[in-house]
Every structure is written in structure tokens, then in C-alpha cells.
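Blackboard transcription, Thursday session:
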Amino acid sequence: MEIQLDQSSSPFNLEHTLRCGQLFRWEKMGDWWYGIVGEKVVKIRQINDRLVFQAFPEKVYANFVENYFRLDDDLPFILSRIGEDKHVRRAIRCFGGLRISRQDPWECLISYICATYKNIPAIKNMILNLSKRFGRKITFNSHHFYTFPKPSDLAHASLEEIKGCKLGFRAVSVLEASKIIDRGEFRLEDLRKMDYEKAKHELLSLPGVGQKVADCVLLFSLDKLEAFPVDVWMKRVILDFYPDYFEDSFVERVVGKSSITPGEYETIGSFGRRYFGEYAGYAQEYLFLLSRSQGENMNI
DNA sequence: ACATCCCCTTAGCC
DNA sequence: AGGCTAAGGGGAT
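(Written on the board underneath:)
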């Protein structure tokens, strides 16, 4: 199957989208990207304006790919809004066509609980371990892939089994959150129809979910494009590019710290939403990629 | 080689 | 209330 893109009305860059650190389940082999999405392996490549894809064991159609990569977002409009800022405009020139993905909320939640205080290669490794141990094996093009475990798979695992996937202290949060989701006490899909603030408040009640994890889940899986995740990279970028929007004492206090308090997180996050508007999450992704590429430490 | 720091932070303690 | 600290283990320097 393939999708014909119109780069002027609907720009898309597969490479930037898969390399920007929002997704942990994609790997490039030769000219093709292979990813595990739900119960399927998806193989995809972009050749100029063509997106060519194939899935196994079940087929997927254009609407599946369009939904996953949010090709329904009006990207030219979004970029014109956030691109009023000169730093974001520079990021857009470098990484135009980057899109936020629409992930499965359950997988996204567990992935970002695992992401706590970890670098991206290590996060990928933990998720692969969980999937090998608790997911389903799919062999395609003579490569082995493993689907992401379902809530009941993790909820009924022992703490030791989950720790065996190299999750460290995150294992307790992953197990407890899985039990809550599996028992039906927390319905992730219900968050989609709530506003950003309410949905975030709900997510914060889950173990292992702080503001950063909540914002990532809301942005990458629940259509809250105003979510503005603040990690150490984003803290640096914001204080570096926009110091005049904060009190001098705030900048002085926060700039040298490797971690930030919940209050400081809120200050930076609400600046992002106020300054960039309803598509703050898109601005965050462009700035995130820019900050990481500048240091040349693209350990993604 | 090898030590040391860092990591898309959270939660528990005081 | 808010500052301090511990918590896997792998990657980067």
C-alpha cells in the first residue's frame, strides 16, 4: 500500500518523526523502518512524496497510517502559529515535516513511566525486554518482533519478573499502574474527552506518573496538543532562549540545577502553553530535536 | 581501560 | 511547604 503526500498542503517527514524520541518501537533496517504498532509489525519507508508501507500478520490501510502519524493535523497551519517564534522557525527549517504521533495510550503510559530518569537507548531496551517477556512474538521478513504486553499480562506478572526486564525502581510503578488499568479502575480512553487540566490531574493519581510523564502521555497518545513536557533538555532550551519571560531570580535558581521542582515545572510548562498557544506540544517537539542536534549527542 | 557523570523524574522523607 | 535524597543500569565523556 502507499500514500501519496502533498508536501505543500500536508508535509511529512518519516525520518524526523521516528527519530525525535517520542516513539520507542521503531528500528531502521536497510531502507525500511520496522515498528510494532498494536498487534502488527509495520514496515514503512518514504520516497519523496510517497509513503510505502506493509503490515504483518494483518494488513493496514491508509487510514491506519494517517491516524498513527497524525496526518490529519493541519501541519502548515500549526507551524505558521508556532513558527512566529524565531527559534521554533529555525527548528522547523531543520526538521520540517516532523509530526507528533498518536500512540496507544496504554503503551504510551507504561513507556513513559519507564522513561523516568533514563536515556532513550535504555528506555528502548526496557520496553523491548518487557515485550520479549510478556508480549507475543511475530516473525516477519526473517526478523523477530514482540508486541507490547496487554494490561492483564503485566498486572498478573510478579514484581521480580518485571524487575528482570531491567526496570529497576520503576518496576513497582509499572506493576501497580498495570493492576489499576487492568481492574478497570482507570480508563485511559476517558481522558480523551476531558480538557487538558482535568485529564492531567487524573493521570497524576497513577503511580510513577509525575508532571513530565503525564504531559508525554497526553501529548503523544491523547490528543492534548497543548501539553508541554519539560525535561532537562527543555528546561535548558527555555531558559536559554526565553530568559526574559521569567524572573531573574527564577532563571538564576533553576539554570544550574539538573532537576526541577513541581513548582518550577509548572512555571516553565505554563509559559510554554501561554507563549506558543494551543499547539505548544508541537513547539516542544521541534525545540527538543533542535536542542539535541545542537549538542551533536543524538543518542536516539 | 575505567571512573564518573548523566539520564525525556518520581516519591518519600523531613 | 518545599528542599533533599535515593533509586537500575546503560550510555556518554
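Lecturer's comment: The longest strand of chain A covers residues 40-47.
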